[in-house]
Protein: Single-stranded DNA binding protein Ssb-like OB fold domain-containing protein
Organism: Digitaria exilis
Amino acid sequence: MATAAAAKRKPVFVKVEQLKPGTTGHTLVAKVLSSNTVLQKGRPGAAAAGPAARPTKIAECLIGDETGCILFTARNEQVDLLKPESTVIIRNAKIDMFKGSMRLAVDKWGRIEVTEPASFNVKEDNNLSLVEYELVNVAEE
């Protein structure tokens, strides 16, 4: 069993400014600047009615580090972890595209942990979610 633990790759922490469209497997430390609930449906007592009836909660959280900031799409219990002013470690995150701009997200393969408050100040004037990307199809000859 010791070999399995040794085979695990040590996470490489990235900075927000290094995030690019279509990339996955990001691990980063970020401060939460704001959280805005964009979708809340279902009844709190509906969980007994089966998985389809479970309440859904989605929030867009502006997170960042000393290189820039990006919108993080938090789902359900992730929303409770991403409270403004908290510092989080986001593991195995991916970039989703939403209306031509980048959003950071964590699916079932990733993890969010609240950690010690970070000492850096977030660079708020470099918001990667404000950059619009255009889908370009490259013609193959």
About this structure: The mean pLDDT is 87. Residues 16-40+55-125 form a domain with the OB fold (Dihydrolipoamide Acetyltransferase, E2P) fold (CATH 2.40.50.140).
